[in-house]
Amino acid sequence: MQKDLWIRHFRHALKDIRTHRFLHGITWITIVLSVILSGTFILFASNAGDVIASWKAGVRVMVYLEKGLTEKDLVRIKNSLGEMELISDFRFVSKMEALEFLRMRMQRHAAVFHNLPENPLPDAFELRVKVGEQGWDIVENVALHVEKIQGVDDVEYGGQWVGRFLQVIAMLRMAAFGMGSLFFLVSVFIVANTIRLAFYSRKEEVEIMRFVGAEEGFIKAPFYMQGFLLGFSGGLGGILVLFVVYTTLTFRMDATFSALAFDFSFLSLRTAATMVGISAFVGWVGAYLSFRQEVLE
Amino acid sequence: MFNVYKAYGKTSALRDISLEIYAGEIVFITGASGAGKSTLLKLFYKGELASQGQILVDGMNLARMGARKLPELRRRIGVIFQDFKLIAGRTVFDNVALPLEAAGEKPKIIEKKVMSVLRTAGIEDKAKVYPPSLSGGEQQRVAVARAVVGSPSLILADEPTASLDPHSAEQVIQLLETFHGRGATLVIATHNRRMISRLKGREIRLENGSIQERLHGSDREMEEA
Question: CB-based contact (8 Å) between B104 and chain A?
C-alpha cells in the first residue's frame, strides 16, 4: 500500500476518533487502566523476582553467641562454620560493632543508648548460605546444624516469612497473569464495540464506498488503524502514568528502600515496549472482532 | 441480460427481462413507479442479485462473479442516485475523488482528474464546500461528477432529475449529454420526457416487472407526433 494511502487512512482514523471522542475516550481509559493494573503487578512480580534471585545467591543467617565465650571458643565455632560447605561466607560481628550499627540506625533515639549500664547485644556471626536450585529447606538444615554447635545461643534466618513471601510472590504472579488477561479481554471487547459503533455511524459512507468500487481493505483500514491507535496510545499512556506514579512513590520512599538494601526498579524498556505492543495488538484484534461480528450477522 | 427474473420472497419484481445494451448507447428505462426500473438498474452493479437468468456487463458474468471481483465491476460502472448519496462529512472534492482513491490513483492524478470533471460540471468553485450547503441541482452535479470521474464504460442513473427543479434538471441533462459525448454508455431510469426527447436514446418501457415496449428515437418521435 502506498504511503499516501496510509496517510489517508490515518487522517480518517483520527477524524473518526475526534468525531466519537467520548466513546473513544472511554475505550482509551479502559486500555490505560488495564495497562496500569497489569503493569503494577508485573512491576511487583519482577522486583520480587530480583529480590528472590539475590537471596538465592546467598541467604543471610545471623548466629547469636552465648555470653562469656573465650577466644578459643570463638576459633572453634569459626572452624565449625568453615567446615560447612553450604556456607559461602561468614564474618564475626562483635557486640560493639552491633551496638554501633544500631546507634547509626536509630540516631533519633540516641538518648536510649547513653543510659545503658552495659552493651546488651551478643557477639554474633553473619553467614551467607547458598540456596541455589536446592530450595529454601537448605537454610533450615544449616540453621539446625549451626544451632547444635556449642556456644551458639540462637540462629535467626527469617525462614517462615521467606516461605510466606514466596507464596505471596507466586500468588502475585498468578494474579498478574489472571488480571492482565481479564483486563485485556475486557479491552478487546470494548475496542470491538467502539469500532463497531464507529463503523455503523459511517454505514452510509461505507455503502457509498462499496458502490464506487472500494475494496473491503480500503474501507476497513481506517477502522483497523483506529483500533491500533487506541491500543498503542492507551499502552503508552498506561506506562507513562505508571512511571509517574512509580517515580513519585519511590522518591518519597527512597530512604526506606535504601535502609532495606532493596533496589526497587521500574519495568525494563523491553517489558514496557512489549506491553505497548500487546496493547496495540489488542486494539487491532478488537477491530478485527468487530468486523467478524459484522460478517456473522 | 437474458431471461432475468428478480423476486423478493413471493413478490416478483422483474419477469423474463432480456435486453442488450451496446457501447456508447443511451437507454432509458421508463415505466410507472414500482414497475421495476430501479431494481433493473441495481442488477447491473450487483446492488441486487438476479433470482434467475444471466447478466453480462463488459464481459463479466455477474452470476459467476465472486465477491472479490465486485469492486472491479463497480469501478467500471458509474452510478447516479436520485437522492445523490453524497458523504455529508466530506468536501465536494473528496466526494468526487472517492472512486479514484478506491482505485489507488496517486494524489496528483486524483487532483487533476477531479478538478477537470468539476470544471466540466460547472462546480469548480465548490470544491472545498460540504454537500449539505449546496442546492439539490449542485449536489446532483457533484454526484454526476463522482460517477464519471473514473471514466467508467457504463453510467447508470436512477431518476437523476426527479428531485430537481426544471432549471437544475436541465443542467444535469446537459452534463449527461456531455459525458455521453465522451464515449460513455448511459442507462437512465426516468420519468422525465424532456430528457428522453432531448438525449434521443432507446426507450424500454416496463410494466409490472416485464418489458412492455421497446422504442427507438424515430418510433418515439412518431408516437409523440
Answer: yes
Cα dist from B143 to A32, A267, B136, B156, whole Å: 43, 55, 10, 12
In this predicted structure, which of A136-140, A203-207, A250-254, B195-199 has the lowest mean pLDDT? A250-254
C-alpha span between A271 and B103 (Å, rounded): 41
Q: Chain B: give the shortest CA distance to residue A201, in Å.
A: 12
SS3 per residue for A198-261: HHHHCHHHHHHHHHCCCCHHHHHHHHHHHHHHHHHHHHHHHHHHHHHHHHHHHHHCHHHHHHCC
CB contact under 8 A, A212 and B72: no
A210 contacts in chain B (CB < 8 Å): 70-71, 74
A204 vs B87: CB contact, 8 Å cut-off?
Answer: yes
Sign (positive or negative) of CA dihedral A18, A24, A25, A29: negative
CA dihedral A142, A144, A148, A151 (to 10 degrees): 70
The partner residue sitting opposite B87, judged by closest CB among A8, A19, A208, is A208
A204 touches chain B (CB under 8 A): yes
pLDDT value, residue A163: 67
Q: Is A172 helix (H, G, I), strand (E, B) or coil?
A: helix
Cα–Cα distance for residue pair A96/A155, rounded to 1 Å: 19
Yes or no: say if B42 and B55 are a contact pair by the CB < 8 Å rule: no
Residue B25 burial by Cβ neighbours in a 10 Å radius (0-12, 13-18, 19+)? middle
| Continuous segment of H or E residues that includes residue A77 | helix A71-83
Alpha-carbon gap: B42 to the closest alpha carbon of chain A (Å): 10
Percent of chain A with pLDDT over 90: 24
Distance from C-alpha of A248 to C-alpha of A225, rounded to nearest angstrom: 34
Residues of A in Cβ contact (< 8 Å) with B76: 213
Model ipTM value: 0.84
**Alpha-carbon gap, residue B121 to B131, rounded angstroms:** 15
> pTM for this one?
0.70
Query: CB–CB of B179/B155 below 8 Å?
Result: yes
Nearest Cα residue in chain B from A9: B101
Cα gap A265→A272, rounded to integer Å = 13
pLDDT in tens, A241-273: 999 998 888 776 665 555 454 567 888 999 999
Give the phi and the psi of residue B94 in degrees, each rounded to 5. Answer: -65, -35
User: Phi then psi for B6, rounded to 5 degrees?
Assistant: -140, 125
